[in-house]
Known about the structure:
The complex is a heterodimer.
Chain A: H1 13-21, H2 25-47, H3 50-67, H4 77-92, H5 113-125, H6 128-138, H7 144-151, H8 155-172
Chain B: H1 3-11, H2 17-25, H3 27-41, H4 50-62, H5 77-91, H6 94-100, H7 148-163, H8 166-175, H9 179-189, H10 194-207, H11 213-221, H12 225-234, H13 239-246, H14 253-263, H15 266-275, H16 281-287, H17 292-300, H18 306-316, H19 322-328, H20 335-345, H21 347-357, H22 363-371, H23 375-384, H24 390-403, H25 409-415, H26 422-431, H27 438-444, H28 451-461, H29 467-473, H30 480-490, H31 496-502, H32 509-519, H33 525-529, H34 537-548, H35 556-566
The site of zinc ion (ZN) has 6 residues of chain B, from helix 1 and helix 3.
Amino acid sequence: MTNPPLPPSDLPDELLAGRAQGGDRAAFEALVVRTLGPARAFCTKLLRDPVLAEDACQEGFLKAWRGLPGFRGDSKFRTWLWRIFANVANDMRKPKPAQIGDMDFEAIPERDVAAEESVAREIAALPDRQREVLLMKVELDLSPAEIAEALGISYEAVKASLSLARKKLKERLE
Amino acid sequence: MTCDEILARWDDGDRSPDVAAHVASCPDCRALLAVDEKVRGWKTVPKTSEAAFMERLREKMKRPAAIRVAGPSAPAVWPRLAAAAVFIAALGAAFWLGRTTHPQVHRKETAANPTPAPRPAPVPKPIPTPLPTPGPAPQPAPPRPVEDADKKEFKGRLMAAAAGTGAGRDAFLSQIRSGTDRSRWISALRSPDAAERSAAVTIASVARDAAVAPDLAIAGARGDERAIAAIGDIGGPAAVPALASLAGVRGRREAVESALAATGLPEAAETLAALGAWSNEAAWRRLGNAAAPAIAARLRQNGEARVPAITAAGWAKAEGAVPELIKLLSRRDSREAAINSLASIGGPRAAAALAEIADEFDEELLKALKAVGPGREALEKRLLDVRLAPTDRARAARTLVALGDHAAEPALITALDSPEIRGDAALALGDLKCEAAVPGISKLLRERRFRDSAAEALAKIGSAKAIPALALASRDRSFREEALRAMTAIRSPEAVPYMIAALGDRDLAGAAIDSLGAIGDTRAVLPLIGMLDSERGGQALDALRKITGQKLPGKTDAWVRWWKANMKSGKSFDFSCF
Ligand SMILES: [Zn+2]
């Protein structure tokens, strides 16, 4: 299987999105490749299940592809995309999330796997809303205002959740 | 400015000198921002390569949008096991051993497994504890000088007594209690003549004479399995050493282990442990709590017997080993096995220990808590224990939700009165969809600190009974959106008037239009037609189409005409709410 030629890598997201709206699959795929890393990190850390996270990413990009006509270009493409992801991941949240033990931790000597595991565990222990807001900030690099828009909650609520999440993690990871 | 305000500006991208200088110099702010780095530093490993991901996505993009996208795949057993195996490999394989000591556990691959994944490498069976050098197998004593005729005569009586019942046998039994018949009987137990030996063993199991255990051991060594079983049945202080002496004899091991278990003696458990008979589930079950001292001793030692001993403790339901098992819960290599054993031992002590470490994410623990009997009660106790830290009590609340046991609802409703955890209790009751908790949770809407949790919980419960309290709470400008959103989720016709009223509010109109579309109440039609020319016109049109099923264009006059023709006189219209 040969991949279709990708558009030049220096085009801005919004321009590629415009091409994709016109049916250009290669342009859309270029956007997927650009955003797959943060999308996966976000879904995996939020859902705590690598298999489910993979499905969420598929679903998120597919929804984006089909929802492209709804992208107006008045916001950043990523803000629009992450809003879709926030909804998809929310819908997929299982009633009983997987154990941290199901997560993959690469065995690379210079990494402190135990520390990462405790980070994972403490993130999992956060209330849903706080975990979601923190991960949108850290992994998706969204501003509080953008998070508020994506989640449909107030800016104040985002700031409060973010602050609480950081304080809890700081205290527990000390 | 407070640190919180500084950080909020920083998060908004404000890098003006005063903000930047504070963040650079304030240890608190830096520590909080370092959290982001720690979160980012947790490196997740994708399940597939980028190419494989793109391939799968491309396939889906080809399909027409009308086909509903499949939901998340059913949890696949093997990929998850494989993931666990990778994790365990990273941490040291010892952790896994606890599972492999169950000889019955032969996991079968499910045929329905949708995702091909590498099977976890087969885990080697634990190496059995090397046998302690067994004592020399009992040797027959040199034949005693007995007259041939006497010998023959005794053999006749012995065979008859063994074959018979009733008075004849009773007389024979009283004769062998002492005197020459006793020494003849003991000789017969050691006899090379299989028929005579077998008769002597039969008599032994009827006479239940513990003193002949060593002689029965010789009969056992010569091939009489019933002799070995008889030692166990008769028991007594000589039984365990006699059986231990047989442990090294080829082909007798299984019978010896069963007989040891049958004695029900702590020394027998000690011998089984020394023999490394950890996989003999039936033996440990039979020994029961008598095995506790031997098992507890292995649990205290950091030897290779520790992990199998944990499993044996569960089989034996060894109450006496519970304190040692609890200590092992904090050790990664023994935690899982200890949880399972505590679950099968059960009782309040085990339940309390499991409840202490439980959280909603640990499925093994949740299973254990369900199995342990008073697991829910132990969690409820923690939930309501004011001496515990609020975080521990909140964890108990979430664990109760994960157990999904609605019997926990009264305790959670009680916890609504506890200032430290009422928010968590409300969320837990929301997850359990507990309608009975609606009045209690509604009260929390008055408290600034808990009203977010309360609104979220009420939204999850979805009871129309919450509407009046939410409506009242929505009068507070800063909480209006959350309250309205909760009402939206409840999707009750009772909420419609409040949402129609919210249409006039710039910030809330969008959410209100969506809710009205979702509720589908025709009272909203006219107010929504009134929104068609506003900046929310497109959204209002979507909602109108949802409610009416009409595909009219977004022109106010077209909708007004339709409304006049179809709905104006409809009795579903009730403007009393205005
Ligand atoms: Zn500061």
